[in-house]
Structure formats: structure tokens, C-alpha cells
Amino acid sequence: MERIEHIGIAVKSLETAGLLYRKLLGTEPYKTETVEPEKVSTQFFNVGGNKIELLEATSPDSTIARFIERKGEGIHHIAFEVDDIAAEMARLREEGFILLSEEPLPGADNKWVCFVHPRTTGGVLVELCQERSV
């Protein structure tokens, strides 16, 4: 793992949370997009070389909607940048971690992603991210 890629924060409303984070961070988001397969809309802020991803559910049966229902708004996951997501997934499987997908999936911000089950990471949802070739 190379570095922390971003911190994901589950929010009820991108509009409301986006205004709050604009004020808090003193900057505008650099990207807003919807990831249909994940039933989520995202908004990214870059501050001091670090990224914050706000996540809003686009469907009541999405992972983010269920997370907010159980835990409320707040930190949802921490993402790590990797050079070779397939190799990192294989390494983590070998170490006994449970991955939430068999293959990398297309994610927001032009990334391949895979999540590691929080049951095997001390209660923290971990995301692996690798830049997709364009």
C-alpha cells in the first residue's frame, strides 16, 4: 500500500454536506459523480494533498443508505492507493482478510476498487484503489 488515497464520509445530502465542507475546508469540490452500480453519488475535495470523498445514497437499498440507517452520518471508509490491485487483493486473501469482491470493480474518481470486510480489519472498512488507464 502506497499511501492513504482518501477518507470516505457517508452523508444524507451531498448538497448540505458539500456546503459544510466548502466552508470547513475553504475550497470547492473538484469532482462530483454518480457510480450507478454502487448506487451512490460522490463529491471529492482535495485539501493539502489529501482527499475527502462525500458519499450520498441514490437508492434506499444502497450500502451507504444502510450504513447511515445503522450508524448515522460519518466516516465510512479509509482508502489506500496501491500499484497493483490484483496483487494486493491476492496478498490480503493469503493473509486471511475477507474481500467484498472477487475482482477489482470500477469506482469513483477513475479508480479500480476493492473493499476489505471490516470484520477482518478491526471494524474499519478498507478500500483499495488503483488508477484506471484512460
Automatic annotation (TrEMBL):
CDD domains: MMCE. PROSITE patterns: VOC (PS51819). It is an enzyme of class 5 (isomerase). The keyword Metal-binding applies. Coiled coil: none annotated. One of its GO terms (biological process) is L-methylmalonyl-CoA metabolic process. InterPro entries: Glyas_Bleomycin-R_OHBP_Dase (IPR029068), MeMalonyl-CoA_epimerase (IPR017515), MMCE/EMCE_epimerase (IPR051785), VOC_core (IPR037523). Its EC number is 5.1.99.1. One of its GO terms (molecular function) is methylmalonyl-CoA epimerase activity. It holds the Pfam family Glyoxalase_4. Residues 3-131 form the VOC domain. SUPFAM superfamilies: Glyoxalase/Bleomycin resistance protein/Dihydroxybiphenyl dioxygenase. Keywords: Isomerase, Metal-binding. Belongs to the methylmalonyl-CoA epimerase family. This is Methylmalonyl-CoA epimerase. It comes from Hufsiella ginkgonis. The lineage of its organism: Bacteria, Pseudomonadati, Bacteroidota, Sphingobacteriia, Sphingobacteriales.
